[in-house]
Amino acid sequence: MPIDNGSFSCLSEVDLFADLSPAEIEQMDRMAPSRSYSLGEMVFSQSQPVTALFILKKGRIRIFRVTEDGKALTMAILEPGAVFGEMMMVGQRMYDNYAEAIEDVEVCLLNTADVERYLLADPRIAIRISRHLGEQVVRLEERLTDLALRPLQSRVCSTLLRLTETARTPRFAHPTIRLSHDQLAGLLGATRESTSKAMSDLASRGIIRQGRARVIIQDMDALAQLARQSG
Known about the structure:
Blueprint: E1 3-4, H1 22-29, E2 34-37, E3 42-44, E4 52-58, E5 61-66, E6 72-78, E7 83-84, E8 98-101, E9 105-111, H2 112-119, H3 123-149, H4 152-164, E10 176-178, H5 181-188, H6 192-204, E11 208-211, E12 214-217, H7 220-227
Antiparallel strand pairs: 1-2, 2-9, 3-8, 4-7, 4-9, 5-6, 5-8, 10-12, 11-12
């Protein structure tokens, strides 16, 4: 978990700080040292809690929690630019979650004092933080509804649609999601076998194309239609 205090622009990658000038971003970057985590390493856990705000610069991170029966339920797979961590003062509570690097990652770290002094005191950022947290609540409610009420095929489609929102896809190309069947099953709270069967069905209908830990969406309209089905 090496720390790099050199030049490492995290804040310029994040929508929360879009209203800041280059000089302001540079000043705050100096207060946000970067850390590197290797594939499989825990960024934080119940046994290694943190009180800080993380900004994901490179790689991907899985946020998950462990259910009472010992199963790992994936809550989100974060892409570069994501903001996460334990920060009670902005409503970000992660104490019962785990964060695991599913690739080699780099993150920037803002401590509690800096968040309070520089972020919450700036109305430009405070408004964006409030909006960001509101969107997180909506996404969590949608996921809980999916898990409780909707059939697996519909959950697969809605999850793929949601992941296209953060996928970095070249212009005019089909949306491509970097995701294995195991990772998707974790997001769905389903078995790998049932998830693979649902994905194979979508592929046979020409809605998606599957590669090595990749899913290419070929028919967004059909995927959205299936995602809306409730039974």
